[in-house]
Amino acid sequence: GIRLAPKERLEIPVLFMPAEMKIYKTQVVIHVMRENGENWPYEVTAESNTDLIRNVTVAENGEAQGILWIYPIHGMTEARQQKSVVIRCQARQRLEQRVELLLIGVMPGETALPDAGNSAVVNTDQSSNTPEVTDGSSATLEFLYELQYQSDEIRSQLDSLVGMQLLQKEWDTESRIVTLIFNVVFAPSKPMRNKATLAVQCTAGGLWKFPLVFVATEPEVDDVINIVAVGLNKESIVGFKLTSQTR
Question: Which residue would you say has higher pLDDT here, 220 or 137?
């Protein structure tokens, strides 16, 4: 019953309030008819375009009575953690650390899905050594994960310095809490402090985000330069070489 003038804009509010950590799917359907109740003279037949048939309502005489705009909506339930995980390493050193993360409210999948990998590659090899989460039934829970950065500049700084691998997954069926254990490798070349977000998505639905902070402290002193005075008011000179690791 909403009347629209020519070129008038219609805003449709959509409220999303998920009750569970899963993917919700729905559609917003806009049905437009002429105000005077007349039909459009275009006749829809069995030979008409499939998309056209799906997007019109047909009157008894075969004319187009209404036009449909169908907008699919996928609601992704997201949980954000407030406390940051700090990965700290001295510059020019290499740190290998295990990080344990809890996913609360995981919904079990109905069927087995491809094995988990990172966001770019999903390993479908059945002989993979990557552990699976099982509850004793045929259903398995699989996860995709990726590191997200606040800017391309931070990504360029950390991409070659940080590595992550999912080692182990454990599922508590009663509490519906999945524990993911990651192996994080951090090898900074210079002092820095950068933030990142680890996004973990369950293929059965749900997205969890964990803030990470990568801190590289000052490196150890390379060497001690001793300058011995040759006399009062006389210059003493010592030479040493510096090598750049980049161009």
Answer: 220
Domain borders along the chain are 23-76, 85-108+141-217
Structure pTM?
0.67
pLDDT tens string 65-108: 888 888 999 998 999 988 999 999 999 999 999 999 999 988 77
Is residue 195 a contact partner of residue 87, using CB atoms and an 8 Å limit? no
Which CATH number applies to 85-108+141-217? Answer: 2.60.40.2310
